[in-house]
Amino acid sequence: MYSSVLIIFTSCQQTPNSQTVIIRSAHSNWIEESFQTNIVNIGLEKLGYTIEKPKKIGYPAIYISLANGDLDYSVVYYQPGSNHLFENAGGEEKLEGVGILTPDGIQGYQIDKKTADKYKITNIQKLKDSEIAKLFDSDGDGKANLVGCNPGWSCELIINHQLQVYELQDTVEHNLGEYTILLTDAITRYQQGKPIIYFAYNPHWISSVLKLGKDVVWLEVPFTSFPESMKNMSEKDTSLYGKNFGFPVLQQRIVANKKFLESNPVAKRWFELVKISIADMNAESLRIKEGEDTLEDIMRHAQEWVKNHQQEYDSWLETARKATN
User: Fold this and answer.
1) Alpha-carbon distance 164 to 161, whole Å?
2) C-beta separation of 199 from 209 below 8 A
3) Best CA proximity match to 277, nearest among 95, 61, 69, 101
4) How much is the pTM?
């Protein structure tokens, strides 16, 4: 079923010996990963590989399956966030991170640009000032209401820790709950002309709704600080473009079984070349949020993406075809 959805190519477009190889992949239930996987698999099929329908399983199971040779690759290597999964599954002896699929995924605190400009707010520590914090009060208790994330997400622990070490617990309240619902409420408040502050990460549809530099801005943090379990993070891990965002800057890579890569240099070279921008991922996330979320929709989106990037995509294919054992 899956292979038939992809475009069928003639044997002259196939890479010698690759057409006999079946490639097995998987992603989590974060549907955006299906979009990325489709983009990778469309290219692999153009290179002559046979593609098995991707599985949808949890992150730990993906890594264990890759290490055991039950899967060949996945798009779910988020560095540094996935480093522990990589190491727990056998590390570099069994796995390898390849390429940079989506670069510079920023996490951190965003506020509306109008309020930031008016009160010269560039750092979250500015909210130690109770008068500034009150600007973001949405429930009348005098504290800023910081839209957080789902309970149990790692960002919950980081935000709670940072509010304490930045001495903001008396002026800022961390609102936890269903992230999408909380963001929808923040958007409504913004549309009413009221100040907002929220935890944000890229890629995510929120960045296609509230645009950076026009609607919102990032806040810096006074210094890098994490809970005890994340003490190995440094300022280098949380900084980009000369700004310290307080959360790890994520590079999304492909992770693959090491023996598979050694046996399939064309696939490895392909993995090294494919790139999907944050802007494209934000746009895809918004399409999914707005209801285009079936497997057929996601495949169509991937095929459209390939068409819209055809020249670059074809150049990647041409380079990959030249890879040999």
Assistant:
1) 5
2) no
3) 101
4) 0.82
